[in-house]
Amino acid sequence: MLIITTISELTAKNSKLQAMFSDAASKVARSELLDQLDPESIIRIHSAPDEGAACIQTQPTAPNRCFTSLEFRIFIYLRLGIQISREDVNCPACSNSSGLSNLHLVNGCKHGDYIHRKHNIVIEEIKKMCTAANLLVDIETSYCFQDHTNKRMDLVVQLNNKDVLVDVTTIDANNPSNGFIRNTELSMSYFPGAAAVMKARSKFTKYRKAIAAVKEFVPFVIETQGRWGFHARELFKSIYAKIPVKGSRVSRNFWQQQISLAYMRATLQNIVHKFHVARKNVFGPLAPQELYYFESFYGQS
Q1: What is the pLDDT of residues 114-159, one digit of tens each?
Q2: pLDDT for the residue numbered 141
Q3: What is the Cα–Cα distance from 227 to 44, expressed in whole angstroms?
Q4: What are the strands of the beta sheet with 137-141, ordered from one edge?
Q5: By the 8 A CB rule, do 252 and 58 touch?
Q6: b/e string for 52-82 if b means 16 or more Cβ within 10 A?
Q7: Which of 135-144, 180-189, 252-261, 282-291 has the lowest mean pLDDT?
Q8: Is residue 23 assigned to a domain?
Q9: What is the helix (H) or strand (E) element at residue 166, kind and residue range?
Q10: Who is most buried in 6, 43, 62, 189, counting CB within 10 A?
């Protein structure tokens, strides 16, 4: 339904008029800013807003929901596009890989538990939300597939009388392998959230033949800077709608912030830990903690 607001109605409500002009001015300023930026910065900005901003908007209420000072500092660096380490990372586990850079700290090393940490913590937060909604949920189960396989599904949620199979995954929108930057320009295939869409499509292709038609498959994709994929948003809304109203219902923002904040804290902890490992040969394993956080190794002076 289209609602047309007249000038007289706007002038009668100063706050509404102010909000309209403020919104218009913000859109113009944003458009002008994006016109001046390089493609990589544009992708980063598009990947950073929406759900990713929950990390800034959230009000800390307990130590396990807060950033440490160092984590918050790193988080702001990532939001502003400032590199974490001045020099390229010398990762012993990935020494045979070519083109390792500072982004290796952000994306997480494929060795060890760096990627699994982020993955598992998102699963746990979704499970908590399902529990609040009184939904039956299983973690890391294989019974949902049509045949015997070693594959496991991250979550199986009974929602609306149907088994919903949830695969949690992350993707870095700035990773060159995504091909969004070509010849120093944005690819025609890029749009905000394109990385999440691409990852979701690959997951549908992977599980299409292994999952029974009576079950619903949902790829819960989060981009490195915090943007959620379309399917993740829709699943989130469906689960939240099942949370019973008891006195004052906890807001959707609360649950959204729980997932986003937990994911980002895991990312930041990975960065700090990987930084320690990468610099061990410089300072030695028994060096004071302060040396690891020395100013010259963070940001650009």
Answers
A1: 777 888 889 999 999 999 889 988 887 766 666 666 677 888 888 8
A2: 74
A3: 10
A4: 137-141, 153-159, 162-171, 216-223
A5: no
A6: bbbbeebeeeeeeeebeebbebbbebbbeee
A7: 282-291
A8: no
A9: strand 162-171
A10: 43
In a domain, 101, yes or no: yes
Is 186 domain-assigned? yes
Task: State the angle between helix axes of 114-132 and 230-240 in degrees (0 to 180), rounded to the nearest 10.
Answer: 30
d(CA 278, CA 102) in angstroms, rounded, equals 11
Map residue 33 onto helix, strand or coil. Answer: helix
The answer to whether residue 222 sits within a structural domain is yes
Quote the CA–CA distance of 257 and 269 in Å, as a whole number. 18
Per DSSP, what are the bridge partners of residue 139?
Answer: 155
Distance CA 193, CA 230 (A): 8
State the first-to-last Cα distance of the chain, in angstroms, to the nearest integer: 53
Determine the Cα–Cα distance for residues 265 and 271; give it in Å rounded to an integer.
10
Please give the single-letter amino acid code of residue 200.
A
Determine which helix (DSSP H) or strand (DSSP E) holds 218, and give its type and residue range.
strand 216-223
Domain count, the chain: 1
Domain span at residue 111 reads 47-295
**Side chain identity at 199, as an amino acid letter?**
K
DSSP, residue by residue, 67-112: --HHHHHHHHHHHHT--S-SS----GGGTT-SS--THHHHH--SST
